[in-house]
């Protein structure tokens, strides 16, 4: 790089700068790009949907844009994967070149592709935790949901945290929830047992709900 700096400039694009050589980084000027706005991602997704004739519902597009979190590449990768899965396999000996009738890409298709809990599942978890006082029943219901839908606790924690933040509760309850769930997520990332940490999540939310009930009296 130093040999040709008089007439050459190098552009290195990376997601994680810590994986690059320190000697290389010391000779570079860093530019950090913020996530794209939802409107910009939607504009390109709509363009791809139109040009590639993707059979997708408006709700699915909304979910795709929301879960891309400002990452255009992620949005297009998920859209491509869903489009490929919606294309039926050609029967052996079938006619080639004929019209292909693809399945409709729905909101459920998007959530299944990215392995994220569906909003209905998140609402079920939230309702169970807030309205069921028996901790054992809560734990059994959530474990059954995880097993039947193949959900990971880390994804449930992220979605549940967003829903809890929307509730109108005393500040003490909100702090207890956020501190408790962050501790559960930390232990889970460190290799903690999913079963044990699922129980911890149930305990955290139930303690916060009982604290809110006491404050309301």
From TrEMBL:
Belongs to the activator 1 small subunits family. Pfam families: AAA_lid_RFC1, Rep_fac_C. This is Replication factor C subunit 3. GO terms for molecular function: ATP binding; DNA binding; DNA clamp loader activity. GO terms for cellular component: Ctf18 RFC-like complex; DNA replication factor C complex; Elg1 RFC-like complex; Rad17 RFC-like complex. Its main location: nucleus. GO terms for biological process: DNA repair; DNA strand elongation involved in DNA replication. Residues 117-203 form the Replication factor C C-terminal domain. Keywords: ATP-binding, DNA replication, Nucleotide-binding, Nucleus. Gene3D superfamilies: 1.10.8.60, 1.20.272.10, P-loop containing nucleotide triphosphate hydrolases (3.40.50.300). It is found in: Nucleus.
